Amino acid sequence: MFPKVFFKHLAPALLAGLALRFFFIWRFPFYSGDTAYYEELARNWLYHGIYGFYSRGQLLPSDARGPGYPAFLAAIYFLAGTGRQAVMLAQAFVDLATCVVAAGIAARLATGASEAARSRVAIAAIWLTALCPFTANYAAVPLTEVLAVFFTTLALLIFLAPTGMEADCNTSNRDLLRGVKIWFAGGFLVGLGTLVRPETPLLLVAVLVAFWLRYRRPANWKKLTLATFWMIAGLLLPLAPWAARNALSVGRVQFLAPRYAETYGDVLPTGFYAWTKTWMFRFRDAYLFTWKLSSQPIDVINLPPYAVDSPEEFSHVTSLLEQYNRTRGMTRALDLQFAELARERSRHHPIRTYVWIPIERSASMWFTPRTTLLPFSGRFWPLAESYHYNPAEFAVTLGFALLNLLYVALFLAAAWFSRTNPGVFLIVIFIVVRTAFLTQLQTCEPRYVLVCFPALLAVGAQLLCRAQPKGPIRETVNA
Q1: Distance (Å, rounded) from C-alpha 222 to C-alpha 179?
Q2: DSSP label at 318?
Q3: Rounded distance between C-alpha atoms, residue 303 and residue 334, angstroms
């Protein structure tokens, strides 16, 4: 897969990447609210044999979170104890493995070019991914991101393997058998990733969309159907035990972790979520509104002006929030009023709700300084005021914002120059599908697009190899 000259850069790049991750672990360790949930699940599973939470002094099984990341934690606890430092160190090495996989993707995308060009691409990819601070930073927080990025990137590499992206009716039986193995293995890895993050099957959606768009002629439908079947079979294999366990333990067949991480019987504020989706596009608003539900009062002074369309609507929202603050919780009746308000806003401004807000959410997730895990506000507007308030914070925030912009620009330029490459086409579809899905969640968290970054950087590395692939797909993606 890799040209020989690549290995001269492998050790230095990985050592530099390891130093960067150790720096974040040593200097900026981070613990989120979700960290405690995953740690409790892992401890209860390892030490008590029950995958669940304590409720009123009793340990009860739960399906609120997928078992992938708690299993990872439990394995580390078994080997090294329950300290968070060991978890972060393990994540650092997993993340470096992802960098190597991303270099493999870059090399496969450049197949058809000269060996010198493929070398440049693979070398660029390993350095870009190893020194990417946005993914490296997540090694310093016990969350699902590092593991989810690894499984997604590895599955992409599998799907780009020889004959993996081929479903033409002219393929031989031997190539078809190899394709079946690749499709099943890719689906299986997506299934493992789904146990970590429930939206991982979006990669499979992207692969199938790319397949059916490229080989849409009726003559190929039989093999397309076969590819679809084996991908789904691979996906379901690791999920079936989890679904069976849920049926026996909590009384419902649950293949994926619930959308809102709820337990059975929870009353969800879906009306409130629907209302926020008509205006919320900034991550900071999740802290001020969504994540305060049922635990903290919500101050109407934090309501942005674009969340209401008239003084009458502002008065109505103020009244609803005052009711919530008095009851210290979201009642069913109150949630229905938020749902009705969401319907009215969507009916009066459908383009804004269904087009502009998702676009703004996409921009917010992709074009951000990504300082969430750092002790910085991430604010640099207005520029003069932010610089005067804290020059060091301003410099880091601006630097991260420009670096993020550079990564996206590299990807867009490389995707354009390599637009005839089916592997690049697949990665573009994956990023588009995943981004579109993320705009429909109750919050717009920039960390959810990190899963795309290794593949994004692997495509960006193609700028160092402008050779356009020619001939059948096997020549394009074979490695």
Answers
A1: 14
A2: H
A3: 18
